[in-house]
Amino acid sequence: MGSRRLTIGFSLIYMSLNKNSQGAYSGGKVSIVNNLVVISFFLKRKSNGHSRGRKSKKSAIPTEEGMRLSFQKTRKKVANIIKCNVWQWFRKNGKPYSPIFLTLTFRDPVTDITIANRYFSEFFQNYNYRLFKKKDKILQYIAVPEFQKNGRVHFHVLIFNLPFNKRNHKIAEEVWKHGMINMKVMQARSSKNLSSYLTKYMLKNSNDLKMYNKRKYFCSLNVLKPIELNSYFLANSILTSLKKTKYSSEIERIDIECPFVGIIKYYTCKLDKFESILDLELDSYTKNRLESEINKENGKRLI
Fold it and tell me: Rounded distance, CA 34 to CA 295, Å?
């Protein structure tokens, strides 16, 4: 009975932290991509209780608007993963790896995306083993499939932690037995240019029904990802702390109307290059949550 009261007590505290002045339950989210902090607030819709535990059936024929929204969401995820990983993997001498762009094409007319994806997964598994003589997934990458005009599938890949040399190029040619490869070092000056370069291939597939309910991108297991915290309390705590610093005048606010949740309030702030969000004056709970997530991502570099 005592533990049950304690659980109910924590639940009431959490609910009180997530209530706004109008009494509606509010949602909040914090997303950190390198030194860019994005905070959002939105109103949670109350459930009528009848649909709890049930998943709505997806339409057999997707709408054009649904395909567009799905593409925008996926494109944003890909762009954020690229920003988190470009020049963030380092050699033993401390210098960052330059990103490598790899294209894999099929000699035979492979038009089935499921079959193509299987060949792709097998390639990186074997390529990783040939390079490092280990089964550990050391290579860090993100990839996008694309349909050519003739219907064949091919893949565009960004590799974040591999030196570009003749040996690595030759091994890739030997492992990919299904067609041609093209490998080159990307000389882009910013992660934004790189994400635009890769996501432009996604644009060609944005209205292709063959990609409906299919994976629109692939990434390695231990690739670095944005720090994301879903909590109104944490979002409000970090925003309050930012407003008390030199960044108070640099916080940008944008309100966006969303057909599913209403108006979403976005606050964005870019920290100095060598400054961490942990340098802010945060309460102990918020700081511990952030440290835990940041350490989890940084730990991937040690694998």
Answer: 13
